[in-house]
Amino acid sequence: MRITSKIDVLGLDLDNTLTFRMRPLPWWCSVFLVPFFMILPPNKSMLNMIRKFKSSGGKIIIISARPSFFTKISKLWLKRYNVPYHKIKCVGFIDRNRQKLQVIRTENVDCFIDDDWVVRQFVGENEPFVKILSPSV
Ligand SMILES: [Mg+2]
Description:
Layout: E1 9-12, H1 27-31, H2 34-39, H3 44-55, E2 59-64, H4 71-80, E3 87-90, H5 96-106, E4 111-113, H6 117-126, E5 131-133
Parallel strand pairs: 1-2, 1-4, 2-3, 4-5
Bound molecules: magnesium ion (MG).
């Protein structure tokens, strides 16, 4: 995936975007799977892309629908795999589309990547000037 130099702030989903693809689980399953999060492998091509983006001066905001109490373990995971980022926001599953949109607005995200088309569509409808991509592009 190529991110153009016009992008200053990149917003990134975590599960199935920055982490290796797995079938989405109901959100409540994840509560029992905290240790599992630590062994999830990162999506290599995504990781390479954001490392280049970071070294070219870009800002990375991770915007996840994980509940806020997952922030700490998510940070450990990011550290473990040496994932560059500036900020992580775990917005929770309740009203996640609107919550993610809110972060995109407050952080002035120029480009947003999410595997969930429902989120992509919602953000696209509400913020037409934000470039929206799927991780599989
Ligand atoms: Mg996702």
